[in-house]
């Protein structure tokens, strides 16, 4: 008899616990539901903010570092393009020249350039830029005339002399037919070690059209989000 009552009481307890448990679970579920209802809103707001900040950063290039325009030019086209880019973006401007200047005679220069390429030479360069200064830049506009379907060898010297890792490199070039820079893309990607080369965004202008392209160059800079 005692045993039966005990079992009966146990059953009542089990029933009460089960009911209480259900209630608790129900409450937890409700809380969870409220949480999930609240979560998407919070998350959405967060994402939106991050996205907006990212978009602003792209739009205005609000990276911490500075922007550099570095270029080589023989007959002056890249010199013009580089000046417009620097002026439009407010970037610093540095010219690379060969220590042993290229001859004024065009054909002699063509021959020397070919020889240097065949020898995979690294002509010594004159450049007003220390390693410490280079470290301050996070974007480098990299300008060159196509020489023998590639970048001029002094620009190899430049790429091999400086640490460009972590930087964004944006090429701009001039040519007389090799509008996509031919081998230049591969060269820059291989020699600007550790950088992100935005060759798909590169600006390429035929030599004879450079003089009338100031606005196009400025628009390109603005379109990339580097306008002042
Ligand atoms: C040595 C040399 C090699 C050249 N090789 C090429 C070439 O392979 N493909 C091309 O389209 N233009 C070639 N060009 C033409 C130049 O890329 C073009 O004239 C460019 O606009 C020159 O820029 P700059 O005035 O800044 O020197 C070459 C010019 C020189 C002097």
Can you describe this structure in just a few lines?
The protein folds into two domains: 1-64; 66-223, Rossmann fold.
Detailed description of the structure:
The protein has 228 residues and is an alpha/beta fold. The chain folds into 2 domains: 1-64; 66-223, Rossmann fold (3-Layer(aba) Sandwich). Helices cover 51% and strands 16% of the residues. The strands form 2 sheets. Strands 1, 2, 5, 6, 7 and 8 form a 6-stranded parallel sheet that branches. The protein has a two-stranded antiparallel sheet with strand order 3-4. α2 (77-89) links the parallel β1 (66-71) and β2 (92-95). α2 (77-89) crosses α7 (214-223). The chain starts with a helix and ends in a 5-residue tail after the last helix. Bound molecules: flavin mononucleotide. Flavin mononucleotide is lined by residues 73-78, 109-110, 113, 145-149, 174-178, 207.
